[in-house]
Amino acid sequence: MRKRQHRVFYLSRCAVCIALGSTFTHVAWARDYFNPAFIENHGQANRTSVDLSTFDNDKSQLPGTYYVTININKTEIGARNVDFQLATLSDGQQALQGCLRLQELKDNGVKTDLFPTLESEKGCVDLSVIPGASQRFDFQQQALSVSIPQLYIANNARGYVPPEKWQEGITALMLNYSFSGYKEYGSSEDSDDAESKYLALQPGFNLGPWRFRNYSNWSSNNGENGSWNSVYNYLQRDIIALKSQFTAGDSNTPSDVFDSVPFRGLQLTSDDQMQPNSQRGYAPTIRGIARSNAQVIVRQNGYIAYQTAVSPGEFEINDMFPTGSNGDYDVTVKEADGSEQHFIVPYSSLPILQRTGRAKYSVTVGKYRDYNNHALDDFGQATLLYGLPWGITLYGGSQIAGDKYQSVAFGVGQNMQMLGAISLDGIWSHAKFDDGRKEIGQSWHVRYSKGVVSTGTTFSLAGYRYASENYNSLSEVINPDDDFYDNYGKRHNRFEASVNQQISNTLGSLTLSWVKEDYWHSAQQMESLSASYNNSWGPVSYTLSYSYNKNTYQYRSDNDDDDNDDDRYNQNDRLFTLSLHVPFTVFDSRLYASYMLNTRKHDATVNSTTLSGTALRDRNLNWSLQQSHSTQDGDSGGVNASYKGTYANLNAGYNQSPDSQQVSYGISGG
Known about the structure:
about 5% helix; Fimbrial assembly protein; transmembrane; Immunoglobulin-like; globular; Fimb_usher; mainly beta; about 55% strand; PapC_N
């Protein structure tokens, strides 16, 4: 009887517990709890409580070996047996920590070289060495999740293709050709007929990694036999290990440090085309800190230029596509809780700027080649541009042509963020001429570029100061018979400025440019100013432009050095142009009507109207009709057509003016 009473009392006590538990269910939802009394041995007189504190925390389980799936920054890298040990976290709680291998992290892009003490004596990775790194073991899912700040992950840039997947092309012969002819018939007995023919050939072949190219042309005037000219021949291949291109034959040196020089010889130069397309050109590195798993959105000029997901901690974005224009980056970091961070990364660029850690180089040896394709003196050239942190680029180079010419260049450029981009370089030259003269001089170049997003303004400035009359370029010494130097002499100063203003989406854009150049010991100078306005009204687009060119020529008497005997002549040219472009449809065919007005001061005013369109099913026949009126030369007009075929492109035209009739024709293909 006593035993039954005890059982009834025990069941009653359980019922009370269940009733109380159902009354306060919200407490159970707040925190899971397992009463150890349920697994106590009630048959023993002296029973002890079972210690379940290890399981009281959802982060804690018994140490040991578990077969788990491993994820790094939410990317699964595989599954294996992992040894887990109980460890105390930074918040004081205890949790199982898995033994990760150093090679695992390295194989998955973690920059382990930055942390020499990352591997512990037991052969496990100590994630506390990496700032912001952590791991979490989900016992129920048997998954080990590792979080490492994106800053310490070496991600492949967008557009990256492993070199082992690159293709060198197929072995093949090729020939591109272009032939054109022109015949003019005089309308009067006093005018002569004229005829010209021109043929251009570009043969070549690919054999494994090697590519051979040739460019030759033939021309004939007025029935003459004509003459052949070989413009260039070169053999070229890629050097994948160096991401460079090797050239043997006729080519030109790069123009990033020195003026481009034609040569016949050997050249090794880095090739941006071997970089991922997001690594070509210059773009700043974007750095920030994410408080959680976040989304980073980068906008430029109101458009999304980049979007990616990052892990908690520091992140770095270094694979922005170069836009080729100035415009600050507006960066938004959208956190997991919906909150947002906003900051601006100013962006201005110049051609010489390189990304951090990027080296661009060229090495050339050979003979200087004039534009008549004659090989002259031997020379060598080497240049290097290297990108440093903080938007700084150092660059320089040297040119040597025996004891005849030596020069060295050094410069620095920087993206100064809110202040724009600037570069400054100097070139020092030493020249020895055939008559024994020696000249030592220097020149300075400064360039500046800035974009203002809020006003839609982009402007650039450039100044060239040839600080000494005795400064000489390589071309001036090796090729002194160039007509440019005979006609103009040595340059003294050159200034360039340009402004592009986007007024609004409805009011169009305005472009201004100005160039001025003068020469040593001469009143001779050149100045050019141009302005253009572009806009559209519905489908109609129109352009207004104005240009002013002033050339001051000086003729000095051969037998008198007195400046008073100089004969100076100013040639001023002013041109105003208005153009309209109107698309419309006739019988489901798209046509375009254009109108252009050209007027010059002290010269003729020309009005031109053109109607153009396409025909045939594949729209591969283009045609145009033109009618013009000149206040000086009268009326003229013409018709032209071109056809794009499978094996060749054909073109023909007929034009008539008061003085002559012209017929043109051509064929090209390859």
